[in-house]
Design a protein that fits this description.
603 residues; 66% helix; alpha/beta; 6-stranded mixed beta sheet; ABC transporter transmembrane region fold
């Protein structure tokens, strides 16, 4: 039930996020599609009417004119023109609907992609599992490119299902009106088939997840094959034996192709179930209604109408089932996109006053490091060193804060609203001024900057590399050529000028500063909570006047203590952290997006 509730939640979000968000465009697409289908049906009806009129030789009255269906060329031309114009209108309406559907798909995909970058650039991830590779940008690329495209495909599938679904409901109403008992028996068949269709949907989603799971391993195996072929000289027979028996018959490659075949096969399973239901339904109709016709000698017209209505119902049911199976195949990717949005918090600048202090308590789910403090307090002027298992950036800031504060979402949100972070790889907005890119206030003038940089011993370096006005537009090339210590100093000065309560600083950047600049910066943090984040290299831990050292592990704070405590236990800390370093820094092969370019017909 939990899985079903999650599925319902994701589907409800997708419909609201796509169709309801773009309801005007969606309505126009559905309306024009309905017009096109209606004119096609009208054309068929008109052709049947003309054929029956010719067969009977009846006289047709149209306005004040009478036409003999068998002999009137005028009536023939009128019917032909009516059919022609009806088909032309149908063709235009369907083309208009499909072309606008493609535009909407593109619009929604671009919206989904922009939203990923917005959340990534302006939001914070909170409560993300340890399996998430924080340092791997491919995660964001996958969300922005592939998963966003899958969301747009699902939007089109849902829209493409609505008209068949409406037709399906109308056909059901017709069937109930003609023969209620027989229709209820057919419903029983459909209910039984729904159980099997649900299993097919689960099978499709499972294979879709497996396809992604084994894609990376398959890419690694392919790279190994390439490396082996480049370095060994073997006969074609030996090569074929090795490839066939060793690689393609087992392991990640076989599992990947099995999952791919299963993903495609799921549509055929859905089609098979629908065809079985169709066959059983026809059998029941002929058996029940046929006996009634034989015994009573009437009811042939009802039988024909019932068969036509049943044909519409089952044809549209097959189409709905196929689309539903296709959406379920995309469900793992859509769910991942949805979970990213749920886990990403964009903190508004509410102006709320943050708490005066925060309490840090080492985890109780894992044994604490020997001699660890029971708790620590962070307040204005506190300076803490954090031995992190992930590098500091916007993507990991929420995760680090969440770990420090014991995974309290509300405390984390409050802290993030008044937090600033500074990394060694600070980027610059292209063709913007220094003030715009770094966010210096209007009150902070070039003279103020000169005073600060002079005290840090960096003014001459700034004067040689940068324009003398904070409001002068800079090109990306100028920013790339600036000395790293100057970049970091400018970013850190910006943090000091802000009214934030808490600053997280990447220790890697502090290393680039001369002692005078580093001391000046840290001394001016006396009214803020300062956290210096160490990643992998802890040699300089304790060199920045830290009052306390906190060690991360298992996504939590596993120890807290003085500099002496850290030095006594640094081997134990690294032993706990090592598996997470291996997971975070592992550089595997790309999956090459092996399943990204499937045609829409595959869905």
């Amino acid at each position: 039930m939990k899985t079903f509730d999650q599925y319902r939640l994701v589907l409800k979000w997708l419909i609201g996020d796509s169709i309801w968000r773009f309801r005007k465009e969606s309505f126009l697409i559905l309306f024009t599609n309905f017009i096109g289908v209606s004119f096609q049906v009208w054309t068929i009806g008109l052709a049947i009417y003309y054929a029956k009129a010719m067969q009977s030789g009846s006289t047709i009255k149209l306005l004040h004119y009478e036409f003999n269906a068998r002999t009137s060329n005028v009536f023939l031309i009128l019917c032909g023109l009516s059919i022609l114009f009806s088909l032309l209108i149908a063709a235009w309406a369907i083309y208009f609907s499909n072309s606008n559907g493609l535009k909407l798909r593109r619009k929604y995909e671009e919206f989904c992609t922009k939203r990923i970058f917005l959340h990534f650039g302006s939001g914070f991830k909170i409560g993300t599992s340890l399996e998430q590779d924080f340092s791997n940008d491919k995660i964001i690329v996958r969300l922005a490119r592939r998963d966003s495209r899958f969301c747009s495909r699902a939007l089109w599938m849902i829209l493409d299902t609505i008209i068949p679904l409406v037709t399906f409901m109308v056909a059901i109403a017709t069937l109930l009106y003609i023969n209620t008992l027989l229709t209820l028996l057919n419903f029983t068949l459909m209910g039984i088939s729904a159980i099997f269709l649900y299993k097919v949907s689960v099978y499709a989603a499972r294979n879709s997840s497996s396809l992604e799971k084994f894609a990376k391993g398959t890419s690694r195996e392919y790279l190994k094959i390439i490396q082996r072929q480049k370095t060994l000289h073997v006969s074609a027979h030996e090569n074929e034996q090795w490839l066939g028996k060793t690689l393609f018959s087992s392991g990640a490659i076989k599992k990947f192709h099995d999952a791919y075949e299963g993903r495609l096969r799921s549509l055929e399973y859905s089609q098979l179930i629908s065809n079985i239901v169709f066959a059983l339904a026809i059998f029941l109709i002929l058996l029940i209604m046929g006996r009634s016709i034989i015994s009573e000698g009437k009811g042939w017209g009802e039988l024909i109408v019932y068969l036509i209505a049943l044909r519409f119902m089952l044809t549209n049911m097959r189409q709905v089932n196929r689309k539903a199976t296709g959406i379920n195949r995309l469900y793992p990717q859509i769910r991942r996109y949805f979970q990213f949005l749920c886990a990403t918090v964009i903190t508004p600048k509410t102006g709320a006053v943050p708490p005066a202090s925060y309490i840090i308590v080492p985890t109780t789910t894992h044994p604490a490091i020997e001699g660890s403090l029971e708790y620590g307090e962070l307040k204005a002027g506190s300076r803490m060193g954090l031995l992190s298992t992930v590098t500091l950036n916007r993507y990991t800031l929420g995760f680090l804060t969440d770990c420090i504060l014991g995974h309290s979402v509300e405390k984390t949100k409050t802290a993030l609203e008044s937090m600033w972070f500074v990394t060694a790889d600070y980027e610059f907005l292209p063709n913007r001024s220094l003030r715009e890119s770094l966010g210096f206030s209007e009150k902070y003038t070039t003279d103020n900057l000169q005073k600060d940089l002079t005290k840090m011993g960096l003014w001459d370096k700034y004067n040689a590399q940068m324009p003398d006005n904070l409001d002068t537009s800079l090109s990306p090339d100028i920013w790339r050529r600036i000395d790293p210590c100057l970049k970091f100093s400018l970013a850190l000065l910006n943090a000091l000028q802000s009214n934030c309560q808490w600053i997280m600083i990447a220790e890697k950047g502090l290393r680039t500063l001369p002692d005078s600049a580093g001391n000046y910066m840290l001394n001016h943090c006396s009214d803020k909570i300062t956290t210096i984040v160490f990643f992998e290299d802890y040699v300089a831990a304790g060199n920045y006047g830290e009052e306390v050292i906190a060690a991360m592990g298992h996504g939590e704070i596993i120890g807290l203590g003085s500099i002496e405590w850290f030095r006594r236990n640094q081997d134990a800390i690294k032993e706990i952290q090592m598996p997470e370093y291996n997971r975070t820094t592992e550089k595997g092969a790309d999956d090459f997006d092996l399943d990204d370019d499937l045609d829409d017909d595959d869905f």
